[in-house]
Structure formats: C-alpha cells, structure tokens
Design brief:
Two copies of one chain form a homodimer.
Chain A (H helix, E strand, L loop, with lengths): L11 E6 L3 H12 L1 H8 L3 E7 L3 H6 L7 E2 L3 H5 L5 E4 L7 H10 L3 E4 L2 H17 L4 E2 L10 H8 L5 E7 L2 H13 L3 H10 L8 H4 L2 H15 L9 E2 L7 H9 L2 E12 L2 E12 L11 E8 L3 E8 L3 H17 L1 H8 L12 E2 L6 E11 L4 H11 L4 E6 L7 E12 H12 L9 E6 L1
Parallel strand pairs in A: 1-2, 1-4, 2-3, 4-5, 5-6, 8-10, 10-13, 10-17
Antiparallel strand pairs in A: 7-9, 7-11, 9-10, 11-12, 14-16, 14-17, 15-16
C-alpha cells in the first residue's frame, strides 16, 4: 500500500532534441520559468542539452552555446540527463533517437504523432524493456490534456466513442470558408499567410495528420493497436464552398472530424468532413482550436477544447509530461497501464467501412427534366436508404439544378452503391457529393 | 530516479459511506464492473463496506446485506479497507468521518464540495500528518476531470483565470428560461419535476454551491487558501425573464458563472449571472451540463465540458480517484504537490469587490420624460463609466420604458455608485438591474 510521501523529488536533467517552434518554446520555459515549476509542482527541471542540426537556428532561439550540440551522442552519455524530449517530428531520425534514448535509460517525452501512430507499439515495448516511460500528451490536441483524460481520468469508463477536431489548420480553413464564404483555395492561402498552415500542408488537409492522432486516441480509448490502414480518410482538400453554404442553410457547420466508434465490439475509425448540427458544442469550436469529445458509459459525453498547435500551447503539454516524470507518476502509470499495447484486444473487431452507419448529406446535380427526382428516390429506396429531407431550389430553364438530400442512418456501403447508380443516370451531371452528418 | 515498474498493484479494499444517488452508483460499479477496472487499469477493487444510516434505502439500492452497516466503526477497524469514500454530503458527520478515516490510516475520496470549501485545509493537513491522501475530483464538475487538469496537466502554467458553469441546476433553469421564455419560477418548478433540482434548491440557485466549487478550483489554480467570505456571490433567484430576452436581443446568453481572475497578483473571486457573448463556447453549454475554462500563460484557454451531476457521471470521477489510489499515483501527488494548502500565497492579494473591473448590462426603468437620458448618462460619466451602447425602445404614452445600457470595462464600485444615484432620480421607477457581461 502506497503512502503519501512528502519527500522531495530529485532534480531532473533534460535534453531537448529538435529546436523548432515547439522545441524552442520548451527550452525557453526550462531556461526562464524554473521558479514557476518549483512553486507549482515542487520540482527542479534542468535543461542540460539542446540537440539541433541547424545550430544557427538554435542560437537565434537564444539557446546558450554551452548546452547546444548537433549530435545526440553527448545526451546518451550524460548520466545526469534522465529525460529526452523528442521534438524533431517525422519518422527518422526521431525513431532512432527515441529508441537510443530508451536503451540508454532515459525516459522519453514526444509530441510526434506520426512516429507514435506508426511505431508506437515498438517504442512502448522498448520503453517497457528498459523500465522507462514514454510520455506523449503533446502528440494529440496541443495544450488539451486529452491523453491524461483517456488514460487516467476516464479509466472507470467503457469508452464507446471518441470524436474530435484534431487538426487546427483544417479547422482554421473551414472556419474561414464558413464564416467568410471563402473558397478552399483562398482559405488555404489565408491560413498560410496567417501562419496556421505549413508551406506544404498536404498531411493536414488530406486528413493524414488527423488519422495519426485518431490512431493514438483510439488506442488509448479502446485498448487496441490501430494500424493506420484501418482508418478511412477523406480530407478537406476536395471540399466545395457550395456545400458549406448549404450546410449553413440546413443548420449545420462543416468540420473535419476524426471519429472512433465502438458498437457491440465493432470498431469503426474514420476521418472525414462532417456536417455537425449547429447546436452541438463541436460546431462552435472555431479557428485553429481543437476539441475532442469522449463518450463513456459512466461519464457520458465529456469534451476537451483548446489550442491544438503552436509553440507555447504545445509546450504546456510537453512540460506537464516532464513534470509527471519528475513527480514519479509517469513511470508508475506507464509501467502499470496497458498503454500503446501491441496485443490485439480480442473483444474488438474492426468494422469494414461499408458496414459503418451514418447520416448523410448528398448533393446531386440534375437536369430539371420530368422524372429525375423519381429516379433518384427509387435508387435510394432500393439501397435501403431512407430520406430525412429533400430540397430542390428552382432552376433557371435549361440549367442543371442542385438537389440536396439528407438521409437517416444508412450503411456506408449502401450509400456508395446508391451514389454509383445515381451518377450513371443520364439526367445527372457531374458526381454526387456526399458528406456525413453528425446530428 | 523512479523507473517504470510493471509490478501489479495490490487489491484495494473500499468502503462507501453514504448510499444516496452517487454512493449507490459507485457501489453498483464496484460490485458489477470489476472486470472493466481490471482490464482498463489492471487494478482489483473490492467493495468491503457500505455505510448508510437508512439501511432500507441501501438494500433497495441492492447493497448486499453482509457488507452493509449503519456505523463507520467496522470500517475504521478493518485493516483490509484502505480507502474510505465519503458520499454523505454536508458538513457533519462527513467531516468527523473523514478525519477518523485518515487517522485510522485510510485514504479518503470525497465528492463533498461544501466540506472541502469549508474544512479543506484542516482535512488536507490531517491527511499529510497521516501520510494518506484526499482525492476530490468529483467535488467540482461531476464527470469533468477539472481537478486533474488544474493540479496535474496544467502544472507548467501560471493560471490567470478560471471561469465556469459549475452548477447544473442553475444551467438547466437558465437554459429553459432562455430557450423557452419561461419565468424563473416556472423553470425552477420544471427543473424539480425533471429531477434536475432538489426539493430545497436554495444552495444551488443562490450561488452558494457554485461558490464552494470556485473556492476549491481557485485554491488549485492559484495556490491560495480561499475563505468563502472572499467570494462575492449573486444567485439566479432574482433574475427576470425580461433581462434574458434582452440578452438574446443583444447577442448574449445568460449563464451563472463562477469566476476566479488574477491580474498583477490581485485575485478577484465572484459568482454571478453573466451575459456571455453568443459565440463563446460557454454560451453554447446547455441544460444540466457544466463547463470550466482555464487560462494559463502557456496553454492559453482550455475548456472542459461534461455532466456536472448525476449518480453515474459523478461515479466516473469517484472511481478514477479510487483507481489513482490503487495505481499509487494519488498518494505520490498528494504528498508532493501543494494541494489545499493553508499557508497564504504571499504573491497574491484578494482584490476588494469594488475594484473588480467588468463590462455591464444595466436596465433602468424610466418615465419617458424630457431629460431622463441626459440625467442617466451624466451620472455614468461622473462615475468614470463609459458607455458601449444605449437602447431605448419606444414606449406607450405615460408608461415607464426600459432603457438598456451596456458599459465598457468599469470598476464595480463605480457602477454601484452610479446605480445608487440613478435609482434616486425622480424620473426612474423601480431599481436598476445590473448584470455583468463576459465579452
């Protein structure tokens, strides 16, 4: 039986690897805010190394020359460095450094969702073998303590759903499109100009980054290893502002959602643009903010909202992880909880995409000729899809007209089959647009 | 340096004291969901005692006779019970039982905000003396892990503001008044019929319950003991549906907010109905849900939303506390963090209410005679209050007319002085209504 001990935790030596936006924010806090950590948490955190290939960049970030290095070797050798904070991003050399650090007996803190979604199980196993921990609060949701919520605060819950806005770039772009009627291309350019999108935003806008985060969150929520290819991913890069205007008209807001849902032991995992009912909390999370809602059998729905990116907000999560190591709670939890486990959870099956049930918004572009509506509704009916609403604006003579259809809950496979059939009608032009609806 | 240990935590013996709505939900989970706790957290939780004066009630809640008792004495003597869960509520006998349990070497879990807001320092000191911990996640915000967020996840932050909807009864009533135009009296009756308000709702509607929670949250956020008399409290029980209609007209939603705010080391603590701008997240938290926003210098604003009451949701937080004890993290943290400390934080001064700065909504009821507007605006100007907006609807001849004034940020003392002067004008009838605005 543990007793509450008031002995002081020791001084913790820290190496920050990677001195980009997050790394320099973490280093800055460790260099300048030690009084705060001492006051709030009673811990002494000492920055002993900053590793950055581009040493000029690190010096510009005011890293003192004497702790700066362009190699991880001195970190691995330093017995007084107990924590390696990996903030390089990407797969390599991040993966190698993390494994080396663990092998050298260091605890690891990382914000690297790509690495964890791809090699999380390998890294966690290496950590267990070395009797060290891997902390990754900053990998999902920036400043939002969603990893702590899923892996600690909600432990008494059978979690049935995780649904979140987990990419700030996409949410910023969608907010601009929704509130200012911008096209995707204009909104992306604006996001880049405002610093909310990378020069190469591919991983953000095509949904890959959200899928990485969903893999990590689902692993924590459902206790199962999530191979990335189990996640169906649609990005926002093909979205038309036309559909965002219709969303508004029908009381929805379009968000890129990452959704993990468990029904009778069947797990469905997907990332896609989603029409969210205006009165839901997630619909009211704007700009670069992130939000994650978790449904547990006891807690019901709890939602966590905050800044999903940025140096200072993300440093809050990284530093919390470091403090948890200094306090001793992180190694204790990592040793005892089944985090990032590789063994399949025998109680869970991955649901094939065609079996996932959703409500849908469909936009069919039809020529205004007699019988077209009958053709469409017959196809839907034949595919077991029941209509929630149909809306056809008046058209100018001869012009194609958008028909907006919303469906009740339908199987994704049935909807795909119906769309295929609709798109073959001669009275239809272009492809039917389909967006899921979260009511 | 702690290493990540994979040794199994021992079986934990638990006593639940008080078998009301929360107590019976916790007991039910401990009796029927042990497989879940084992699977998710690797812990074995054994319910060894339920203490309830009204044993008939406990039997109706399906508590097995053999673990039921109407006295705490067998719990204190049982060496295999390591945790006492206090769910009686109120000050006595809860306080005595908690102190006895700690003295007998038990850890304590409690959902009792009244007890902690009143005797938190005494109880925490007794726990430290006994080298045991007190866990209280369920005392604020029901299922929302706000205690974990403030005391762990946000440790790297200098927290400057905590603002929350922390009473589900009030939020339910205000939502009914706002969405359905009900009067306060009708909405309260509806809340009672729906089970969202107690038969005696005094502590909820007059703001006392929110003040208790604010005392606990502020203590965690600002590291200072908060005497209840430092909190200025206004309830919702005097609110008029007229003002809620005006709120809507001006783009606000009325919420009962608990606000702790630190500016240059000056702390202001208050509970009052507040007009919240419609596009803020807190304005979109409806019904019996709670929400707490925390602003930290690194994280920025993070917001936590969920069910603030009810047996099952609150049991989620109580059980998380029990699991943290089983895992060993709770005793570790309680021993090391300055939680519920009695010593004053020398860096913080309590700001007198008159010095607090807010924006305001004022409703003056005036006779429509020449000069009345000039009188009012002169008084405001003399008291250093600058107007953000003025709105006077046309009146029927001879009838008094409401004048709606919104102010820029002004000192509370200046606003009070202005209201006093306005209410003495002969052209005014009734008392000026004043509601703070969170822009």
């Amino acid at each position: 039986m543990a007793s509450a001990s008031s002995s002081s935790p020791p001084t913790l030596g820290i190496a920050v690897v990677g001195c980009g936006i997050i790394g320099s924010a973490v280093a800055d806090a460790l260099l300048n805010e030690s009084a705060l950590f001492k006051h709030r948490a009673g811990v002494t955190l000492q920055l002993r190394h900053v590793v950055e290939k581009d040493t000029e960049k690190a010096l510009r970030a005011k890293i003192p020359q004497q702790i700066l290095s362009d190699s991880i070797a001195p970190v691995l050798k330093d017995k007084r460095t107990q924590v390696v904070v990996e903030l390089i991003g990407g797969l390599e050399p991040a993966r190698t450094f993390v494994l080396q650090a663990l092998k050298a007996g260091k605890h690891v803190v990382t914000a690297n969702k790509y690495l964890l979604a791809t090699h999380g199980v390998e890294i966690a196993e290496a950590a267990r073998k070395a009797k060290r921990c891997v902390q990754f609060e900053a990998s999902c949701g920036g400043a939002i303590p969603i990893v702590a919520a899923l892996s600690e605060s909600l432990l008494a819950n059978d979690i049935t759903r995780v649904v979140g806005i987990v990419n700030g770039t996409c949410n910023y772009i969608l907010t601009q499109m929704t509130q200012h009627g911008q096209t995707y291309v204009a909104a992306l350019a604006g996001a880049q100009a405002a610093g909310f999108a990378e020069r190469d935003p591919t991983f953000d806008v095509n949904g890959t980054d959200s899928a990485h985060k969903l893999a990590i969150l689902s692993s924590l929520a459902f206790g199962v290893e999530v191979p990335l290819n189990r996640i169906e991913v649609t990005g926002i890069d093909k979205l038309s502002d036309v559909d965002l205007k219709f969303a508004k008209e029908f009381g929805y807001v379009c968000k890129l959602l990452a959704i993990g849902e468990k029904t009778d032991g069947n797990l469905s995992l997907r990332v896609h643009p989603t029409f969210v009912s205006q009165d839901r909390l997630l619909a009211n999370v704007h700009g670069s903010f992130n939000a994650i809602s978790v449904t547990g059998h006891a807690a019901g729905e709890t939602t966590y909202v905050g800044r999903g990116a940025g140096g200072k907000p993300t440093s809050s999560a990284v530093l919390a992880d470091i403090i948890d190591i200094a306090l001793g709670t992180a190694p204790l939890l990592f040793g005892r909880l089944p985090l990032l486990i590789g063994k399949p959870n025998v109680n869970i099956r991955f649901l094939p995409g065609s079996q996932v049930v959703s409500r849908n918004y469909l936009r069919v572009t039809a020529f205004d000729v007699p019988g077209v509506m009958a053709h469409i509704t017959n196809i839907l009916s034949r595919n077991n899809i029941s209509l929630a609403g149909v809306n056809q604006h008046e058209s100018k003579a001869g012009h194609p007209v958008p028909i907006i259809i919303t469906t009740h809950e339908s199987k994704d496979g049935d909807v795909s089959a119906a769309i295929k059939a609709i798109d073959q009608l001669k009275t239809i032009t272009g492809n039917t647009v389909r967006i899921r609806v979260l009511a």
